[in-house]
Amino acid sequence: MKNKKKRRNTKRARVSPISAVRKAIGHHLKKYLIIYVPAVMPLFFFFLAHAITMVTLVLIKSGVLPQNLTLHKTLVTWGVYGLLPLLLCSYGCFFAVAKPVCGFLARKFPEWMPTTLTLASGGAYGAAVALVLLLLLAPGSLPRVFFLLLIGTTIGLGNWWLYHTLTGASAPAPQSPPADDF
What we know:
Elements: H1 2-9, H2 17-31, H3 33-36, H4 40-61, H5 71-81, H6 83-108, H7 114-137, H8 142-167
Helix pairs in contact: 4-5, 4-6, 6-7, 7-8
């Protein structure tokens, strides 16, 4: 009887459904961060291409840029058709190149600072993405090759830096040999 009376007198804290959903999504993202990070930079390029396209179209309509400019068409093509290969390259290279290279470099060069390891691993990740993009898209001119190298390197360094920033992870600590006690 006493317990029933206590329960009636206590007020229950109301939880907003929006904050509960926001908290659940935040918890899920933190728990499965390794799944979502490789998609960040390709999605960033997707939205950046569309934003530049909108600005270009406004400038063309207002007469600031010439009518025959193909920049917006190229950006839309890249934003729409380039997203899927970019995502696949990013995911594949994240797990197949960046993580093993980070572990290898940490074991091979234990004296390197974490920033140097992050840059080296991100560079390897970016080089792998750029190589796969070059093989998939087979650019016909040197400027296109440099464009793909820039995109691949940016994706690799950006995703790897973001991954280490969000997880607070540094490179795996190398195992020190056991000390001989005499």
